[in-house]
Amino acid sequence: MRVLVTGAAGFLGKHVARRFLAEGWEVRGFDLDDLSGSEFETVKGDLTDQASVEAAIRGTDTVAHIGAIGDVYLAGERPSLAAQVNVVGTSNVVQAANAAGVRVVYASTWEVYGEPEYEPIDEAHPTQPDHPYNITKLAGESMLLSACRLHGLSGIALRLGTAYGSGLRPNSVFRIFLDRARAGDKITVQGDGSQGRQFTHASDIARAFVLAASSDLSGRAINIVAPETVSIKELADLIVSRHPTEVEFGEPRAGDVPPATVTAALAGELLGWTADVPFDRGIEEFISSVPSRG
Amino acid sequence: MRVLVTGAAGFLGKHVARRFLAEGWEVRGFDLDDLSGSEFETVKGDLTDQASVEAAIRGTDTVAHIGAIGDVYLAGERPSLAAQVNVVGTSNVVQAANAAGVRVVYASTWEVYGEPEYEPIDEAHPTQPDHPYNITKLAGESMLLSACRLHGLSGIALRLGTAYGSGLRPNSVFRIFLDRARAGDKITVQGDGSQGRQFTHASDIARAFVLAASSDLSGRAINIVAPETVSIKELADLIVSRHPTEVEFGEPRAGDVPPATVTAALAGELLGWTADVPFDRGIEEFISSVPSRG
After folding, report:
1. N or C: which end of chain B has fewer CB within 10 A?
2. Looking at this predicted complex, what is its ipTM?
């Protein structure tokens, strides 16, 4: 079986591509960024260019569509770019996959739900995204599910928990806390730090992609979220316990997604997926994956 | 007061531009299509080009953002184009308006709701669009409301009923029925024709735009939908009563939005808007507005 992994040069794309390789799939990686040194076939291309997407999909069985403006801050600063890559780009992938009869597994996000109306949030919960990042990710998801319904495309959307693991981008809260703590600089927690997140390890997410690619379930969105809730304060404390430094509390950041508990029970039922990596192990592994500076 | 009307060469844009003119606003029309012969200042430009949107917005107080791939069939055939114009284009308008301190009144659609969970549908009803047209219109709306919340932009989204009136595009069901009936050709109703629509006259919609532009209500989406429900069968019968021809029933069309009753009570409360044009008067006016062929 052959899979095209879009965004294969990114944090999550790399984890997913490697997992497919490990499971015996042939992997083709697609990215605008440099893919040299990859252990798999690579194609440099732009999601917003229909022809290059079509060419890259040719000859594959499945697309793991992860390529996106995944940096929430960048999406907030450049909403039109987020719309371009996350909606037009996804629409290009969906159209090309539909034309080629290729299955799509799409990286959506738990952030599509917005303010919780009940908890834990399951897949039947209304969606009310409120930031260019999650708005455009939901629009991409809807485009996929619409093509499944209208054109019989085989596809599934994974609403991922906040991902962490080796290779996280430098402006992620994990990296900022760790880099500052190691340098002996103060860590700033936005708000009171009580806001919780179900941080989900990239290796668990990668496994979900392979399970979803191998399933014939279609036309659904499924939560892929680890069960543990860790507050930002706890994350800061964990890092400070290893690299002692001061923790201060700042203004809550506008546009931060409110905390909510999300259940992945459906993923257990339909895909046989549950998270394997407990947070204490995952954070340990993350810390050791980031080389100390200097 | 000066308003930029995007999509001013289109069916709804023309009605809205004329209404603003009639209410004493200075009007600048923006469209990719030909605007020659307009009674107002015009700018030829592309919504997907940030610079041309910025230039067009300069010096105005309000944007009535109507420009879109508004043809549902075209959006279904070319989802990436719909994403480009309706999401990236709207995002460009929102960014430019935000930078210039200009208010935005956005043409959204009742179709964002999807399958009704209760009726009549009010603005608190969940949104679950299922077609590239309404998916991209909702994403545009969400981008606007997000900018209101995050950046203090002044803006409002009008979730419009199915619009009709003079100048409707030739592939609308109104024009297809009328043109075929006049030619003595059979009219085909998709499904059993019982599916109802709250057809809303373009002049009522145009009035809602002026009311919304003049209000300082912000960060909300409001239904602008006429109260009467008319079935497709009734529409066909009305036209056939004037131009007798045969009516047949075909397969329901995949992707048609399911019927649902929508309430515009909030528009009455917050904008003082209710629909003025009863359907029998509106359809009469529509029929007389379309010149007979040959």
Report:
1. C
2. 0.95
